Amino acid sequence: MTAPATPGGPGQPVIELRDVRKEFPGGAMAVDGVSLTVGAGTVFGVVGHSGAGKSTLLRLVNGLEEPTSGSVLVDGQDLSALGERGLRPVRREIGMVFQQFNLFRSRTVLGNVLYPLRLAGLDRAAARARAEETLDFVGLSGHGGRYPEQLSGGQRQRVGIARALTTRPKVLLCDEATSALDPQTTGEVLALLRRVNRELGVTILLITHEMEVVRGLCDRVAVMEEGKVVESGEVYEVFARPRHATTAAFVRSALHSAPCTAPRTGRCWSGCGPATRGGWSPCR
Amino acid sequence: MRADWSTFWPKVLDATGETVYMVLITLALSTVGGLSVGLALYATRKGGVLPNRAVHAVLGTFINVIRPVPFIIAIVALAPVTRAVVGTMIGTDAAVFPMTVVATFGIARIVESNLLSVEPGVIEAARSMGAGPLRILLTVLVPEALGPLVLGLTFMLVALIDFSAVAGTVGGGGVGNLAMTYGYLRFDTSVMVVTVLVLIALVQSAQFLGNLLSRRILRR
Predict the structure, then answer these.
(1) What is the structure's pLDDT at B220?
(2) pLDDT at B176
(3) Which CATH number fits domain A1-93+169-241: 3.40.830.10, 3.30.43.10, 2.60.40.2250, 3.40.50.300?
(4) CB contact, 8 Å: A74 with chain B?
(5) Residue-wise pLDDT tens digits, B26-51
(6) In what residue span(s) does the ABC transmembrane type-1 domain sit (chain B) (predicted)?
(7) Which of A86, A169, B4, B30 is the most exposed place for a label (fewest CB within 10 A)?
(8) pLDDT higher for A71 or A277?
(9) Long-range contacts of B140-147 (CB under 8 A, 24+ apart)
(10) pLDDT tens-digit profile of A229-284?
(11) What is the pLDDT at residue A256?
(12) Measured at the alpha carbon of residue B64, what is the angle toward residues B47 and B71, in degrees to the nearest 5?
């Protein structure tokens, strides 16, 4: 069955997934027939519980995972037609930011940001100038000589974002980019990502389990459950009129902090905080 | 005391020099060899950056065949190969060959296990930037694992000082040879004590330098 494509918002489609399936050895279907389109300049959020297939979905977009069936197009180019070697130049056009930052501990802040530039073949001087400029954009000028362990979580993630952006990619993939951060720092990182989108025009595809992130940053949202997109649309629309139980639970989680007063609509406590889970069975 | 110390001390100095020479040459050669084999072993494993089951199995088996052989047996077993490669079976140069063979495969395992401790997320980050397998190995994995790698090489350096003494007993030269000919065969305990002290001093210095270097790399 082919799910109807999710319209991606304004602009030319930059990312297109067409009926994509990803089955892991052992039979686990991480992504099960997902079609979605992300338009240029959009911030697109994919929300879901852990194990819903979001992470795999994100990794399909830069070819870190290969789809079992279906096709993934970035900027009109079908990734499955490219081999591992052919994917490398494409990946340089797609930045990626990680939950655990994944910075090179053996390199300074500047060294981390320089790495993708040297990889792209810039000479030392040009790379350095560009890296400094990017560090300035994320508010870390003057920190270039420090090592990752000397930075706070929020600063580390800003280095991660600088490293992902410095080659001036069209697309930024964010894998739970704020999930390891406290609420204050999350706000700062979200504000930075908003600037990345508005000032640099970078299309952002992010995955998260926090609906607050979607509300604060995204134009469009898709809700995933068990490898499928169960609902998608404009963030405003989805918040105003959630149709699926999982969506409703996520929306509640963003609108209400504890205590959770929402009626029991699903079979599990996914929508509420830990303190209000009593008597509900946990979602898988 | 039976040894004539005025003629004996120069011998101790010469023997120490020979030991240092054997150990350092071996360390240099086996680091290059061990790093190559270790990187190949790591890269070809399942889920590695260049997975290749056959190569991985062959390398793994080969290492497991070489490593359990006691060093003194390895010297004897490799003697014909040593003669073919070095031209002789006696002396410091002849000792370097079996030491290098054994140390290479020891270092290969050290390299493999240290590379495995590098967080997969860092490798994924490099892949997401479009880095190829060889580049990831050399510019991400080796630098990220360098601190523990230096400690591993220090461990091997200490083992090599031990190996060199063993090689000395079968005509390899160095401090081991001195201990054997003067200390053991001539029953001179004081010579034995001096050679043991020299070996302890060498091991201490090696470990001290290794610790210093790895601390500097790890910045702690």
Answers:
(1) 67
(2) 85
(3) 3.40.50.300
(4) no
(5) 999 999 999 999 999 999 998 888 99
(6) 16-208
(7) B4
(8) A71
(9) B140/A104, B141/B39, B141/B42, B141/B115, B142/B35, B142/B39, B142/B115, B143/A104, B143/A106, B143/A107, B144/A104, B144/A105, B144/A106, B144/B118, B144/B119, B145/B114, B145/B115, B145/B117, B145/B118, B146/A106, B146/B217, B147/B214, B147/B217, B147/B218
(10) 999 999 988 888 888 888 988 888 877 543 333 344 444 444 443 333 333 333 33
(11) 59
(12) 145
Q: Which chain B residues are closer than 8 Å to A119 by Cβ?
A: 129-131, 135
- Amino acid A115 reads Y
pLDDT at B215 over 70: yes
Give the total residue count for chain B: 220
Choose from A106, A119, A122 for mutation: most chain B CBs within 10 A.
A106
CA pair distance A178, A175, nearest whole angstrom: 9
Per domain, the residue ranges of chain A are 1-93+169-241, 243-284
- Fold for domain B5-218? MetI-like fold (1.10.3720)
Mean of per-residue pLDDT scores for chain A: 86
State ipTM. 0.85
